[in-house]
Amino acid sequence: MKATVGEMPQKVVKYVGTGTKMVNLVLLICNVSFGILFWLHDAKVLLYYSFLDTIMLLFACEMLRRKKKWAYVVTIFVGLFAFMILAVIYLGWEYGFQQYCIGFAASLIFTDFYMYRERRITKRTIIIVAFDVFVYMALRLWTYEHPYVYQMGGESVVRGFFIANSLIGFAFLIMYCCIYSNTVRKLEYELLDMANLDPLTGICNRRRMQQMLKAAVKEYAGSPQQAVLAMLDVDYFKKVNDTYGHEAGDEVLKRLATLLREKNKENENFQVSRWGGEEFLVFYERHQKSSEEVVEEFEELRQKMQDMRIEYEGRSIGVTITIGLAFYAEGMTIHTFIKTADDKLYEGKRAGRNRVMV
Fold first, then answer.
1. Per the domain annotation, does 328 fall within a domain?
2. What pTM did the predictor assign?
């Protein structure tokens, strides 16, 4: 069994799908345009094939609509390769149809990357490019012995076809390189989101918060700033899960995360994260407030959560949170900073929960 790397993220799939539709539209326009030119210059063999290739393109688009990607790719490339080879044999080298090999190399490599993404992608890519180069060289050798079968138009027509085909070949190269680079960039962003964001709540995760704390504490070593760390915990969360189900518990966590995210939108120094389970960690730095004002701000947050009713499957759920606060002091390490907030949280729980403990 072949080992695959994994599925493409939906954002990337949508982006590539849009790019593929644009490519199909360009191919259709080229087919129609060439068909008209072949008809005007009485190149009947190429006119008939252009008509056939248009039918193949429409069939390929239908296969793509039905999500039969393999059938789409094979139909497109067989049709285009056959058209290129026939055009070069029929008209010769001077019309520039061999330039399609340039676009084929880029499009085949991208298709290989996008559709399969297997461990041996490098080996297969080399074979694909080698085949493309072989076809190019074979056509060149053929034209030495067989310059052309049919002369279509005068010198201006030949030059026009050569320029147009060269532009088409390089256009596909540029287009697929752009799609490929943007796909890789989107994949990088997706990986960053996976590495830094909590998948349930959408706020940053423990790993990302630890990075922010490490950077901040390192900066504070030379010039301490006003900063506070708040550890939040949903009271009796296990009871919520046991009574209403784990999906209801997830909804509670998402609503709390929404409250925290709203605070972050109001003040970008109010950094929020899911620390683990039902625990959240807030890093509030450079707040320029007194300790009493900070406590009051978190008290308002606690009160909002207490007043909130979470509707889930026709049932109204009410929960409270306990918050432990730790104010940064010069010389504190990340470990002591977090431990102080955690200790205050458990003091609040022992004192009866649903409170802010300093």
1. yes
2. 0.59
